[in-house]
Specification:
19% helix; 2 helices; alpha+beta; 86 residues; 6-stranded antiparallel β-sheet
Length: 86
């Protein structure tokens, strides 16, 4: 039994790539892919798992960009921003 989840990703509307993540949660898998695949910064990441899309979970679109808090302060550190259905 594998402890990894096979996700499909599209970076900045590019071609689809597969990524086996050690996390099964979408936002954690996006950050893992960012580190392991050397994704550009900032970037948009569309992510899904084929079997879960049929059940209504995804695809989701995440933005990796500088962290900005509710007051508009920018911290210059990578953050996964709120996702929306792609």
């Amino acid at each position: 039994m594998s402890d990894q989840t096979l996700f499909k990703l599209r970076i900045n509307e590019g071609p689809t790539v597969e990524f086996a993540a050690s996390h099964s949660e979408y936002s954690l898998a996006v950050m893992e892919a960012f580190g392991c695949l050397g994704l550009p910064y900032p970037c948009d990441v569309e992510i899904w798992v084929d079997d879960l899309v049929a059940a209504g979970y995804g695809p989701y679109l995440y933005k990796i960009a500088d962290f900005v808090d509710a007051r508009g302060n920018e911290y210059g550190a990578p953050a996964v921003m709120t996702a929306r259905r792609a």
